[in-house]
Design goal:
The protein is mostly helical. It is built from 7 helices and no strands. α1 (about 5-20) runs antiparallel to α2, α4 (about 60-75) packs antiparallel against α5 (about 80-90) and α6 runs antiparallel to α7.
């Protein structure tokens, strides 16, 4: 039986969603490991793992998001890394490390409006 058919992946994604909905963390991670091999982007695979973990444990998810962001940075995909850090900041708004890292990324990306919004959020109202 050939496993890399489109139907196999459709069923696997559905199975993953089903496991998450039922709260079956270990089964969800098992299905994820099979699906991760079909993704050509290692950072995206780690990000998917973090998304799955977020359904079960916020701290584990944040650690995985951190790994995904670092992988995006190593791939020179700074905008995607910044998006991950923004997501992490919404999950844990009290973490100043995320804000500092975002400011560094926004500086490299030449996004002063994002720096201002992060540094002075009260001015957005």
């Amino acid at each position: 039986m050939k496993l890399n058919t489109p139907d196999f992946y459709n069923v696997a994604w559905f199975k993953l969603a089903e496991c998450i909905a039922r709260g079956e963390k270990e089964r969800a991670l098992g299905v994820y490991k099979l699906l991760a091999h079909s993704l050509n982007d290692s950072a995206l695979a780690i990000q998917l793992e973090a998304d799955i973990l977020l359904s079960f444990n916020k701290q584990d998810a944040l650690a995985a998001y951190q790994r995904a962001a670092e992988e995006y940075k190593s791939q020179k995909q700074l905008f995607k890394a910044a998006c991950i850090y923004e997501h992490m900041l919404t999950i844990d708004p009290t973490n100043n490390t995320y804000s500092k890292t975002l400011i560094e990324l926004y500086t490299h990306l030449n996004m002063p409006h994002k720096i201002a919004a992060l540094a002075y959020p009260q001015n957005l109202e």
